[in-house]
Design a protein that fits this description.
The protein contains 6 helices and 6 strands, in the order ααααββαββαββ. With 191 residues, the protein is of the alpha+beta class. The longest helix has 28 residues. It comes from Epidermidibacterium keratini. This is Alkaline shock response membrane anchor protein AmaP.
C-alpha cells in the first residue's frame, strides 16, 4: 500500500461523506424534505428511540464496528509512519521461461557505489532504489573533490557505472538519477 495515495483517497472519501452529511442537514433545516421534518425538535430523536428499543443487540454490533474502524485506523497510521518508497528486490528482465531472476537492491546499489567511488575525483557516493518492483528507479548521490572535473565524472558515471547497472538488470531504460555535489561548496548541486 502506498501511503500517500491511500492517504489522499481516504481523506477525499471522508471529506465527501462529511460534505454530503452537511448538505443533507442544511436541506433538512430549509424544509426541502418537508416542513414537518424541518419543524421537528432536536429532542424528538428517532435514532435515540431506536437505539433504546434495540439496545440488546445494537451495542455489541456498535462495539464490533468501532473495533474494525480502530483496526483500519491503526493500519492507516502504520502505513503512513512506516511507509517507504524503497524497493526490496529487483526482478531482472529477459527470458523468464525457466523462472525469474531476482537481485537484492542492496547488491545492485553497493556495486554501483563501489564502482563510482573508484572514479578519480569522487570522495563518496551513496545510492538507493525507489519506486516499486515493476518500475524501479535508482538515485545516486555523489560527492566530488574540489579538484574533480564534473563533466568527466558525469560522463564516466553515465557511460560506465549506469551502463553496467542497466546491463545487469537487463533494462536499458532503467531510470538512474545522478546528483553531484562538490566538497568545497555544500550548496552546489548538479542533477
Amino acid at each position: 500500500m502506498h501511503a500517500d495515495r491511500t492517504n489522499r483517497t481516504v481523506n477525499i472519501l471522508l471529506a465527501l461523506i462529511l460534505l454530503g452529511g452537511g448538505v443533507a442537514v442544511a436541506l433538512l433545516s430549509f424544509g426541502v424534505f418537508g416542513q414537518q421534518s424541518a419543524d421537528r425538535k432536536v429532542t424528538d430523536n428517532v435514532v435515540s428511540q431506536f437505539v433504546g428499543d434495540q439496545g440488546t443487540w445494537f451495542w455489541p454490533v456498535a462495539a464490533v464496528v468501532a473495533l474494525l474502524v480502530l483496526l483500519l485506523c491503526l493500519r492507516w497510521i502504520i502505513a503512513i509512519l512506516a511507509s517507504t518508497d524503497r524497493v526490496g528486490e529487483l526482478i531482472v528482465g529477459g527470458d523468464r521461461s525457466h523462472g525469474r531472476t531476482v537481485l537484492s537492491t542492496g547488491a545492485v546499489t553497493d556495486a554501483l557505489v563501489t564502482e563510482v567511488e573508484g572514479y578519480r575525483g569522487v570522495s563518496s557516493a551513496s545510492a538507493r532504489t525507489i519506486g516499486n518492483e515493476a518500475h524501479p528507479e535508482i538515485v545516486l548521490q555523489t560527492r566530488l573533490d574540489s579538484s574533480a572535473d564534473i563533466g568527466d565524472v558525469r560522463t564516466k558515471i553515465d557511460s560506465e557505472a549506469a551502463a553496467h547497472v542497466r546491463e545487469a538488470m537487463d533494462d536499458p531504460q532503467l531510470p538512474i538519477t545522478v546528483e553531484l555535489s562538490m566538497d568545497n561548496d555544500a550548496g552546489s548541486r548538479v542533477r
